[in-house]
Amino acid sequence: MIYSTSIQNLHDSLHEWRKHQESIAFVPTMGNLHAGHIELIKIAKTKAKRVVVSIFVNPLQFGEHDDFTRYPRTLEEDSRILEALDADLLFHPTAQDIYPEKAQTIVSVHNLANQYCGVARPGHFDGVATIVCKLFNLITPTIAVFGCKDFQQLTLIKIMVRDLHLPIEILGVKTIRDTHGLALSSRNSYLTEDETKQARLLYQTLTHAKEKIITHHTDFTKIEQTAIDNLKAAGFTPEYFKICRSNDLEPAQLIDNEIVILTAARLGKTRLIDNIAFSKPV
Ligand code: AMP
């Protein structure tokens, strides 16, 4: 595996592959790799000749009160995992390389950037869109692989690629969960043992709401409010719980068949997000 820490080195490394027109699948991450990331990389390997993985804890997507400093950084272990998976290149740039002082450009996907997770994290999705756009330009992948775990992020990236005419296929991969349904996340390491057990309720609440919709409960506002109340009663501080259309994340109407329920909630010091996507039976 090639290990690139500078843009120049990345260009030099990609040069040979480009010369031979080899396809590249790209998996952007913030590191602290777990089975969710590993699934993305395994799928990426089936989609192109070369697989590039980036590890970059992107300062631009963290707010003042977010966990940028304490975000888990485990580069050595991550490198071992990537070697074992036979990834072709690990790109681990410095923040100075990515955001030189003279930089003035931000990529912003209105209006989605300001909804759902964007409400509690203003500027977060501008940070995400900007770093992903920069990485796409640097790596020029044929395909990029993202987790459905971050459903709003995945949707936003698809919109950005469409709007900017970027010639990149975006692939969403199903969420990998532990045996109790908790979505794997680097932030789960912040949870205490008790909180880890409590956290399972987030996916249970999503599943319960899905069952209500599938069994023809039509009052979406009531389903959302009941879920919020249940999460509060279980010790969460919910941010939102929204039943949406899965293609554009607009609030779902009764005629919509492709649904995703999105939620974010705090548990102690940890912010958890999850979602469930499904087709309504006709
Ligand atoms: P992160 O390192 O958290 O920025 O995540 C990098 C990529 O891994 C993103 O596309 C995430 O959506 C994806 N990802 C994170 N957790 C999971 C999971 N449990 N299952 C599948 N994909 C995931």
Radius of gyration, in Å, reads 19 Å
Oligomeric nature of the chains: single chain
Report helical residue fraction: 25-40%
Strand order of the largest sheet: 1-4-3-2-5-6
Shape: globular
Shape-level CATH architecture of the largest domain: 3-Layer(aba) Sandwich
Bound heterogens, unique: adenosine monophosphate
Strand percentage, roughly? Answer: 15-25%
Q: What is the CATH homologous superfamily assignment of the largest domain?
A: HUPs
Our measurement of the CA-to-CA distance between the termini, rounded to an integer number of angstroms, reads: 49 Å
Instruction: Give the rounded overall mean pLDDT.
Output: 97
Q: Could you tell me the number of beta strands?
A: 9
Could you list the spans in which at least 5 consecutive residues all have pLDDT below 50?
none
Total of domains: 2
Main sheet overview: 6 strands, parallel
Class per helix and strand makeup: alpha/beta
Please name the CATH topology of the largest domain.
Rossmann fold
Please trace the helix and strand order, writing H or E for each element.
EHEHEHEHHHEHEHHEEE
